């Protein structure tokens, strides 16, 4: 039973990130309170934290809603991701130790065999996030790490939809970025990472279209996430 705001926050964050609460859908606090075994005060505290992170929105006199899903919003979030991750990798070139870089190379070698066409989309995205977060941590800037963690929550569902077509690109891009970091070439590392994470409006439009079909047609969602 969820009894604290922290526990509620974690559970509802997962629901919002996975679109168990659909885009633009109102959060039924009474139902959620019963579902989580939570009282009103910690529930509200947890929901307000998710508003601050952008996973939910609060409409005056109407309550809490799941955020919208639109191509424009996805492009905005990917532009933010590109800016933060590229800045982080630039710092990593200067701040990361040789040992830390070698550790990330070892992680990449461990992860790569799991990027296969038959791997579940959720697992592929989880591993991809693990690599990128580890790369950002090399900047030794906790605020950047927290920002990226929150951003990943907001784009995770659309990444489940889009990742499978990018497996080969992801393999080579990660290795190239790591090589540039190891060579202490900030400019090259940032350019490579920028190319890797950039999403066009056209790509976002198609991905959001597919995501909507899966959100509102659960059978399709199950197939896509396998």
Structure description:
With 226 residues, the chain is mainly α. 72% of the residues lie in helices and 4% in strands. It is built from eleven helices and two strands. The chain has helices at residues 5-17, 29-36, 40-53, 71-95, 98-111, 121-137, 142-162, 167-182, 186-197, 201-216, 218-224, and strands spanning 56-59, 63-66. A two-stranded antiparallel ribbon has the order 1-2. β1 and β2 (63-66) form a beta hairpin. α4 crosses α7, α4 (71-95) packs antiparallel against α9 and α8 (167-182) packs antiparallel against α9 (186-197). The protein is globular, with a radius of gyration of 19 Å. 28% of the residues are buried.
Spell out the blueprint of helices and strands.
Elements: H1 5-17, H2 29-36, H3 40-53, E1 56-59, E2 63-66, H4 71-95, H5 98-111, H6 121-137, H7 142-162, H8 167-182, H9 186-197, H10 201-216, H11 218-224
Helix pairs in contact: 1-3, 1-7, 4-6, 4-7, 4-9, 4-10, 5-6, 5-8, 6-7, 7-10, 8-9, 10-11
